[in-house]
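input
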Amino acid sequence: MLGTNCHAATLCVEFNSVLNCAKVTLACLVQLPARECAGCDILLHEVYSAVGLPKAPPQMQRYHPTAHTSTYELAEIAAKAKPKLLVLYHQLYLGGVSDDDLVREVRSKYDGRVVSAHDLDFY
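output
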């Protein structure tokens, strides 16, 4: 089960003094149908490693699936929403996985553009 704290927002970015706004979904899409984000420019989403979860302590194995979104669940959401760019944030590196591992897990079930965010990155 995915987390249930869903929020919609608008991301506005200035290019050459022109303000461009793109619909962005923050947190999860459990209660927001994928059509609400369909074709958005950027989908920002938190994520934990589905592969790393079994290597985490038992308490974390129970907690994370109820409050966060796995890489495989996020891949399903992104496949339905079809954003131009999927940005992973609030990454939970369970089991010692890396950013590359998280992106690889998402890409195993989603063929769109995916990046794992870092502070001060530009996309």
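quick obs: The mean pLDDT is 78.
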